[in-house]
Design goal:
mainly beta; Jelly Rolls; 3 domains; 10-stranded antiparallel sheet; 2% helix
Length: 430
Amino acid sequence: MASLCTAQADDQISLKNGDLFFGKVIALQGGLIELQTPHSEAPLKILNEDLIKLNFSASHSAKETPDELPKNSQELYLRNGDSIPGEVVGLNKTHLSFQTWFAGLLEISRDQIDSVFFGVTPQRTIFRGPIGVEGWSQENNGQWRYENGALTSRDKGFIGRDLKLPKNFIFGADISWESSPNIRIHLCTDEAKPKTDGTGNSYLLNLNSGGVQVRRVMPAGTNGPKFKTLITSTRAPGNKGSNTCQLELRVDRVTRILQLYLNGEKLGQGIDPTDSPEGSALLFESMSSGSSNNSVSNIFLHEWDTTTQLLRREPRAEDELDTLSVDDGDRFSGRILSYSPADPTKPFTVQTPLSPNPISIPLENCAVMYFTKGTDTPKSKGQYYLALRTGGKLSLSGIQLGADKLKANHPWLGELEIDRVVMLSISKSE
């Protein structure tokens, strides 16, 4: 059974042996994580070599809440898979200048950059929690309770809430268990509680020791099976034997496309064969037999900007050429020469084989910019992955975490100093 240091809305440390610790992380350096808890006068010291994931609570910051943090409409992708929200402020023949509010100005070599996306609208947050059982409904047996920043149940039972789900949304949550996971998540339902006869009209996400599955609960009167499997995976939910996982389901009810992620990795995509369910509620249903806890924490619900998703599918034209795609679908391939932020239109200048003179493209018309794939690049993998609250992730080594800042080395960008308020989680890289 996991060791729990109880506290309200705390940082959470997950270890390889399944232990969980709650408190405030006050330092991470010299091979140790120092955790301040109300149950110990001196900070607990935990070997970071045993770390699987460290989730940071937003409540420790005296600054903005996560939804009030600065957001950018541009996102840069490095060739090693890292992504950084920010703003292009300069470009020359060797480097791109990228301004971030949380790590300052980054000067990035062009051969390390895969792409830059423009007009990436920050996702509107619909819900973030839980902060208690208030506002949630469950049967009189009250099997679900709130503790350690999570909704927890040891027995069979459900807890639900009408979250006014929009047409397109991203749902995510951390699921934890003591012995084995056994939980169902009902989405887009209009039912006050799960129906026992197998009927309904919703999406059903099953998580157990055999893997994770997304099913379509068919509406009453539909011919054929009552359930249709849309996405399935037999991958063990826990990361490296951990008793916790992060689930994310993206639902586009207009195109009927669903995408499932486990621990940040996309497992698959499915298409609803019928009209999407129109319900707006969410239900968590514990299937435990009464011998161990299932817990749900770090629940978030974002509106999904599917226009941005379409831009991300815009292909690169040539590996050996730069490509700048604009919002009407045109693509300009050749060499992106420069960027002029002082000009009123903030144009990018592109030299193409089809024109003797460079072409100027205003920033407001840019959709995505791809850089030439260079030759071999230096080592790109760090010891940890840092996930950011405003989107994006960074591969880091040599982390030193203080009260306000994180100092670390990026394999390509060198030494970085990052504002702690932007940090969502730190996990070991594989």
